[in-house]
Amino acid sequence: MRRLRLCAMLTAMYSLSLFAQKATWFDNVKVSGFAIAQYQWSNPKDNEANSFNLRMARVALDGKVAGDFYWKTQIQITGNTSTLASSPRLVDLFVEWQKYKAFNLRLGEFQVPFTFESPIHPVDVGFMDNGQAVLKLTGYSDRSGMHSSNGRDIGIMAQGDFLKNANGRNLLHYAVSVVNGQGINLKDVDQRKNVVGSFWVMPIEGMRIGVSGWEGSYARKGNWTDEQSGESRSGVRSLPQHRYAISGEYASNGFTFRSEYVHSTGKAFAKTMTDTNDASASDCNLSAIGSKADGFYALGIVPVVKSKVNIKARYDLYRNNGEWNSAKTFYEAGADYYLAKNLRLSAEYALVNDRSLSKHNYSLVNTELSIKF
Q1: Residue 289 gets which letter from DSSP?
Q2: Within a 10 A sphere around the Cβ of 321, how many other Cβ atoms?
Q3: Beta-bridge mates of residue 236
Q4: Interval 20-58: pLDDT, tens
Q5: 88 contacts 4 by C-beta, under 8 angstroms
Q6: Which pTM value belongs to this model?
Q7: Helix, strand, coil shares, percent, the chain, to 5
Q8: What is d(CA 237, CA 218) in angstroms, rounded to the nearest whole number?
Q9: How far apart are CA 219 and CA 269, in angstroms?
Q10: What structural domains and CATH numbers belong to the chain?
Q11: Which of 105, 101, 54, 58 is nearest to 80 (CA)?
Q12: CA 242, CA 228: separation in Å to the nearest integer?
């Protein structure tokens, strides 16, 4: 059944591509994608790991239709196909009206505008993965218990750039979305929409400074035990989520410096949803991690040989309950080597300090081969 579903998705995309080649009202249709192969070694006490892995692969179609409309559809393939978290699935499907630079309107399933790093292409993030705060508070491996959604949701978004300077470069950017709050490929549960938005200024070429906000909820329909009375309850349980991020970045001529602080208030479900047919989908009991979390990262990527060799470092902290007893910190250093323009070999070493473990410190080595097409 899973193979049939994947085949159907690929066939649909291929058919759309053929149709687009014949239809004159489709313009600039292209097929793109990427793949990341990974080897990772780590040695936390009693939980050592050493494995090759296909981290992620995506195939996308995008183009213009009827002049002012941009469209995109993208599927992701990675690892085990038995769960929502890693099975072949649709991650993007939207249409955007782009008649005016200052006001674009997008409808469908797309990346929500929260943090600078979340919308960055996975190959271009520069490290083994997004920062922990982005992963945990932006809909990837979200602390709320939401299934892995790659920072995406279903809804509508307005965005644009405006206020040009003397050189014709826009100084301000905004994006505001109204989404279900349930992640990718799922309908709303509690009928309470989430509002997610970001705003940033671009004072000089390559620099942006901004803020993001997230107001809404994550909900499930199922059963739970009331924390106060101990009674069994059933129905829809909605957990409010209030989040903000403060972000800064400078990226120019191969140099990248980026830093973000992300804060969250809102309780979480005890089990992460992994399958809509699994018990996790209807388990509405609360996690013991509480209602607060925050994280901070700062990174630098410097070209040693332009377009050929980079060196890089990152400090990455996340506190799952907002307290230092849950802090997990990565001290990372590494390098990239471009075998060709879109073929890159990356290697990193990280010293990890995890205060939730009896032995806090351990090492992690990560290597990746990534290709874009």
Answers
A1: T
A2: 19
A3: 221
A4: 454 555 557 899 999 999 999 999 999 999 999 989 999
A5: no
A6: 0.90
A7: 10, 55, 35
A8: 9
A9: 9
A10: 58-324 (2.40.160)
A11: 54
A12: 24
pLDDT of residue 175: 98
Give the span between the Cα atoms of 323 and 277, in whole angstroms: 34
The dihedral of CA 340, 342, 343, 345: what is its sign? positive
Q: What are the C-alpha distances in Å from 276 to residues 83, 84, 99, 283? A: 9, 8, 39, 11
Provide, rounded to the nearest whole percent, the portion of the chain with pLDDT above 70: 90
For 85: left if phi > 0, alpha if psi spans -120 to 50, otherwise beta; the answer is alpha
Q: Which region holds residue 16: left if phi is over 0, alpha if psi is between -120 and 50, else beta?
A: alpha
Question: Tens digit of pLDDT for each residue in 181-228?
Answer: 999 999 999 999 999 999 999 999 999 999 999 999 999 999 999 999
Instruction: Kindly state the DSSP code that residue 355 receives in the 8-state scheme.
Output: T
**For residue 262, what are the contacts with CB-CB under 8 A and spacing of at least 6?**
115, 133, 134, 137, 138, 243, 244, 245, 294, 295, 296
